[in-house]
Amino acid sequence: MPSPVLPRLFATLLLGSLGGLAQAADVTVAYQTTVDPAKVAQAAGRYEQASHASIDWRKFDNGADIIAAVASGDVQIGYLGSSPLAAATTRKVPVQTFLIATQIGAGEALVARQGIDTPQDLIGKKVAVPFVSTGHYSLLAALKAWNIDPAQVQILNLAPPAIIAAWKRGDIDATYVWDPALGVAKETGKVLITSGELAQKGAPTFDAWIVRKDFAEQHPQIVKSFAQVTLDAYADYRKDPQAWLADAHNVNALAKLSGAKAADIPGLLQGNVYPLAAEQKALLGAPSTEALSHTAAFLKEQGKVEAVLPDYAPYVTAQYLPD
């Protein structure tokens, strides 16, 4: 008579292996409403096709919330700006930057209401921005460049949807933000400075794709396929931007996921840089680690983090780029 232990053991092993397969196939990805060519691939399901994974795409309004979700384990892969990334890595959240998504140019900007014509006109005014975002970092950097003490400005911590509502009500005088809130503000406001112009003043910002270290170690192929699909989308756009924009399918897919108006998408795309594979290999090294260090130093100066790490290299890797 066969031992009853064997069937139970077999069942346990089978359930364990099935559980491992489920774990390998499921990933939660946090994205934001930024404008970038890879959202066309997202809308078309190319990430799922390439990775053979079931992806739960979750929209977030800012990087700080994404970091909280990644730190808790609810999200494995996330899209966020260099400022919240610097804050997170300084606090030693176990993540790695595996792709530079965007070198920010005109995709983020400081927009003020009509009548605010110079930076000095911001003194005493209400300026909304999501705290610890790239917009927040850029706003503070702009004020520093203009020799304006942040205490002279009423800086309000609002998420992008709240910024849209506050702008429409007339509750705020200016905002440093990205689309779709940026597009709403620009309809009646005036751009005082863009993140691309601030980069030329020594305060560059970028968006990145990050991954939990433990997930990347367990599922490197999912991370690699994610990087490949993103870079393919960038290459498709950069090969012929005008032809890409002439395709209504591309523009409509991007407008749907970003919330930006279709008419605004050409200017927003052309205002940023989407690095290709060869460029990524150079960026995912000293340029990124130094940018994180400089951003963390700025955040420490502003009292947003307590210290700056001696080395940010453990939080940046090029190992998931295509071979």
UniProtKB/TrEMBL annotation:
It is found in: Periplasm. SUPFAM superfamilies: Periplasmic binding protein-like II. Gene3D superfamilies: Periplasmic binding protein-like II. One of its GO terms (molecular function) is transmembrane transporter activity. GO terms for cellular component: ATP-binding cassette (ABC) transporter complex; periplasmic space. One of its GO terms (biological process) is alkanesulfonate transmembrane transport. Belongs to the bacterial solute-binding protein SsuA/TauA family. This is Taurine ABC transporter substrate-binding protein. It comes from Pseudomonas parafulva. The lineage of its organism: Bacteria, Pseudomonadati, Pseudomonadota, Gammaproteobacteria, Pseudomonadales.
